[in-house]
Amino acid sequence: MSHRYGLAALLCVAALLVPARPAAAADAWDAPGPYATAVQVGVVNTLYYPRDIATSPRRHPVIVWGNGTGGVPLVYRDLLLYWASHGFIVSAANTPTSNLGVSMRLGIDALAQADADPGSVFHHHVDLAHIGASGHSQGGAAAIVVGADPRIDAILPIQPGPLADIDAVHVPALLLAGQYDSIVFPALVKAFYNDADHIPAIYAELRGADHFTVVGDPGPFAAPTTAWFRFQLMGDTAAGAEFTGPRCGICTDTRTFSDVRRNALAP
Could you give the CA distance from residue 114 to residue 34 in angstroms, rounded to a whole number? Predict the structure, then answer.
């Protein structure tokens, strides 16, 4: 099998265009971004990305995603498209058992091949120097596991399961909990935060959220997660103000967050 057809088997069983939605201003993160989006459903990973990436004048940062137990990327489609509309390439593992992060790492490998392939729409448009890891529940634990990979620049575990060791992570972490989560209790997410005293770490608890608030319409999870990755992977200082300084945005947003904590290493 040739390199190109091998890559196609991995990345592109089908490509789907997603209807454009009303876009936010280029510097906002509380609404869908300025990019129309597309989807490629592959064998190992599903990609969500800016539709016109082949003609983009820039490289686009990467987010690798892990699903919750029994889940598939379609369950989180709205959130992953939201990130793609802000200019990210999202590589979502197709597996419903993502804890080891194998498919997430393979997604990075495949995008590196696509970036080097002149026949790919991603050719010279993948920013492999800026990669984040995220996921929900079991996939949140996978984001912590993958956070030990030297290619990862920031992690965002959402209500992460317990099977991970944050001591192996050496990049900034935003750990999200749900105030009324009865599956991954906020105390379990706080335990990861308390153990992350060797890295810049923030704990944020979404007011009123249960374990499945992020599924389907991501609601209150969309804006802060987008701001985090815009800050960490795009160098967006306006988004960074949500997490930095004595009056950080999420720290004072008591309508959205029931608890926010930042450790001494957080900016």
Answer: 24
Report the predicted TM-score, pTM, of the whole model to 2 decimal places: 0.91
- DSSP state for residue 27 in the 8-state scheme: T
Tokens linked to 28:
């906002």
- The residues facing 177 across adjacent strands are 205
pLDDT at 13 over 80: no
Give the position of tokens 């030297």. Answer: 150
pLDDT over 90, % of the chain: 88
How far apart (Å, rounded) are the C-alpha atoms in residues 53 and 46?
16
Domains and CATH numbers, the chain: 3-262 (3.40.50.1820)
- b/e code 184-208 from CB counts within 10 Å (16+ = b): bebeebbebbeebeebbbbbbbbee
Of 48 and 12, the structure prediction assigns the larger pLDDT to: 48
Which amino acid appears at position 145 of this protein?
Answer: V
